[in-house]
Design goal:
The protein is mainly α and 363 residues long. The protein folds into two domains: 63-132, no CATH class; 134-362, no CATH class. 63% of the residues lie in helices and 10% in strands. The protein contains ten helices and seven strands. It has helices at residues 2-20, 29-41, 49-57, 134-160, 170-189, 193-213, 226-241, 246-253, 259-308, 310-353, and strands spanning 62-68, 71-76, 78-83, 87-92, 105-108, 111-114, 127-129. It has a three-stranded antiparallel β-sheet with strand order 4-3-7, with no helix packed on it. The chain has a two-stranded antiparallel ribbon with strand order 1-2. A hairpin with a 3-residue loop joins strand 3 and strand 4. Helix 3 (49-57) crosses helix 9 and helix 7 runs parallel beside helix 10. The longest helix is centred in the last third of the chain and has 50 residues, at 259-308.
């Protein structure tokens, strides 16, 4: 009982410490103004690869598919903003297209800001944005898709039991579940694998579905959003902490090394508690962003060469399309690999936190 109390206290202390050491990064005003001024100096309508890449990988208030002439084919999403001065405002993002001012609001580089009648930003108004951006909407759709698929598969098992051969989508799901159980959970968690299987399967399929949906043109790269991976990493962080025991903490604060080495190793072991979820966060984010940037760059090479010469643009098109298709298929493989790596590392870290558990003697 005393150990459980100490364990709960340590979890609380580490949670508070992680929140205290978390800082918010603010962009400096001068570089922002310089970039804005440089943007104004650019020729209107000129092709800007950097801007298009950022628009592709960052979050937005609409699903933009393509532009035909002056017509943009896009699905605007609901904008929900609140300020103490103006209250709650709900409207479609389509009302703010092309810099239009609507009900005292406008879109400034994808960010909703409050403006006055002259269109000048009102700095005195603190605006809270609760809008359904494309990352949020797509994540909710992925969650619904995951729930529907798993309920249908579970319903077939409940109806047919072990005596009925898998059919339909069940054939695709069952080998994956078996793989996560036999090659991820059991080797790392021993006899306690059943306790963590629901979480591991949820993480694996949720990441996988978001990875695959993000490869559809016009959709959002949800797993390439640092906020998404941070939430997954923090959840895994708490799962790891609540799985620890006295042997784990003894190894952290009193490692089995000579006395003079303890003063060096203890801070390193302590920092490893936080570097584990950090590794999960950065690995998934970096890999998914990199793949989308590479694909976008290969497509934009057509327009870059086309801006120099029409012949060069048409001549490089087959090469660009071939490389894009190749990287695209690689990204499908990466979607599965990154879901597996995140799940496997989570299981490894949980297994390490259960160091010296009673069930390990039978594993």
């Amino acid at each position: 009982m005393a150990f459980r109390s100490i364990k709960s206290l340590l979890v609380v202390l580490f949670s508070v410490a992680s929140m205290l050491f978390t800082t918010t990064l603010h962009a400096e005003n001068e570089p922002g103004k310089a970039a804005e001024q440089a943007g104004k100096e650019k020729k209107e309508g000129a092709f800007d690869p950097a801007q298009l890449i950022m628009e592709h990988i960052l979050d937005a208030h609409e699903f933009h598919f393509f532009t035909v002439g002056e017509t943009e084919i896009a699905i605007p999403l609901p904008v929900i903003v609140y300020s103490k001065e103006r209250g709650v405002a709900v409207f479609s993002y389509g009302n703010l297209s092309h810099g239009t001012i609507y009900n005292g609001y406008k879109s400034e580089e994808g960010k909703i800001v409050a403006v006055d009648a002259a269109g000048k930003i009102e700095e005195t108004i603190s605006l809270y944005d609760f809008s359904l951006t494309r990352n949020v909407v797509q994540m909710l759709l992925a969650l619904i898709l995951l729930t529907v698929i798993m309920i249908k598969v579970a319903g077939k098992y409940k109806k047919g039991g072990a005596n009925t051969a898998p059919s339909g989508f069940q054939n695709a799901i069952e080998p994956v579940i078996t793989f996560v159980r036999d090659d991820v959970a059991k080797p790392n968690l021993g006899l306690a694998y059943e306790k963590y299987m629901p979480y591991l399967l949820t993480v694996f399929f949720f990441i996988l579905i978001n990875n695959l949906i993000g490869l559809i043109p016009g959709t959002a790269n949800v797993t390439g959003n640092i906020a998404f991976t941070v939430v997954l990493g923090v959840i895994s962080f708490f799962v790891i902490l609540f799985s620890t025991n006295r042997h784990y903490w003894k190894h952290i604060f009193w490692p089995p090394v000579p006395g003079f080495v303890k003063f060096i190793l203890v801070p390193v072991e302590f920092l490893s508690i936080f570097t584990k979820p950090f590794a999960l966060i950065v690995r998934l984010f970096a890999n998914m962003v990199a793949g989308h940037i590479i694909i976008t760059c290969f497509v934009m090479l057509i327009f870059i060469f086309g801006a120099m010469s029409t012949v060069a643009g048409w001549g490089f098109s087959p090469v660009s399309v071939a490389f894009t298709a190749f990287i695209y298929f690689i990204e499908i493989l990466v979607a599965f690999i990154q879901a597996f790596i995140f799940t496997n590392l989570t299981a490894v870290f949980i297994g390490q936190s259960r160091e010296g558990a009673h069930d390990e003697a039978h594993h």
